[in-house]
Design goal:
By secondary structure, the chain is of the alpha/beta class. It has 11 helices and 12 strands. It binds 1,4-dihydronicotinamide adenine dinucleotide and magnesium ion. 1,4-dihydronicotinamide adenine dinucleotide (NAI) binds next to helix 4.
Amino acid sequence: MKHYAVAVIAGDGIGPEVMAEGLKMLKAVSEIHGGLAFETRSLPWNCQYYATQGRMMPENGLDILREFDVILLGAVGSPEVPDHVSVWELILPIRRAFQQYVNLRPIKLLKGLESPLRYKRHDDLDFMVVRENTEGEYSNMGGRLHPGTPYELAVQNNVFTRYGVERIVRYAFKLAVETGKTRVTAATKSNGINHSMPFWDEIVREVSLQFPQMDTKLYHIDALTAYFVSRPESFDVVVASNLFGDILTDLGAAIVGGLGLAPSGNINPEKTYPSMFEPIHGSAPDIAGKGIANPIAQIWSISMMLDHLGHRELGKLVLDSIEAVLVEGKVRTPDIGGSATTRELGGAIREQLYRRGG
Ligand code: NAI
Ligand code: MG
């Protein structure tokens, strides 16, 4: 029996609602396989914890997490706690301390769903975005000066290191090779941001020399966002800095059915530290407590976790089960045009899993 220790941070709002379905799915996967055990431990680190403890996680929170093979996150954030606190004190420290420098986000139109882009089909919408996850625009370097005066100012530094850019770009090329793809596209803005982005471009070109078989393109981020809409079929692997990748992938999620379906992995490729898998969406206070959140993003993030742990056949089984339910079209949450609850959709996906793998 192979054992995996899984830390579970369900978080706030719809986080615990979608996580409940995710964990049931994980249990089902382990039953079907027979030789895998996922030992989950729930960690109550969220905005409620903050309200009583004054922090998002205990002082030794990262030490606790370090012992796990992998981390599953729901979503954090609540109207009572400023977003920069909930994100900066929980998610970003985990991404950084554990060198989860890859944020991997599939942009894939599942069968059974239609894209809001007219005329675009499943074959047209199937690529990966590799977002840098530890530096770039989301650095906390900077500060504010002269508060409350007319000359008050704020400075936030972008941080691009050769080490950081090289490793993310190389990961993107290797991912393209491993998945049999031929095109790598890098997001830039070297016509407007004249120090860090030309540096980024230089490194993209240098790394691309080691992958001469790849068709490498650099596009300015403004044009690239337009191409996501006008010709998404021209992408295999897209690599972007932290901010550009963040924005691109929300757009990416929108063209394949919305946030309720979009998963992500915060990956430490060397496996020196645990990686973390989570839906892209937040805690959705507008629908929290109603039991109607779409659990697919969370369940798909578990499929990515299984891939990462080396169980690709199980990862695929989970994704195939999600797709089968969508193709059938009977059980859907309101965000994808149905009236089913989170639990009903989670249950339907598990039923498909048992049918396929049982
Ligand atoms: P959000 O992703 O929570 O919601 C945006 C919209 O998408 C809402 O209308 C929501 O109802 C809908 N939506 C999101 N997930 C859904 C799902 N699974 N099923 C159906 N509909 C879904 O983003 P928003 O409103 O900007 O942020 C809300 C809170 O979440 C904030 O506190 C924010 O900081 C936090 N947040 C946390 C993230 C994380 O934990 N990684 C990521 C993004 C936001
Ligand atoms: Mg985002």
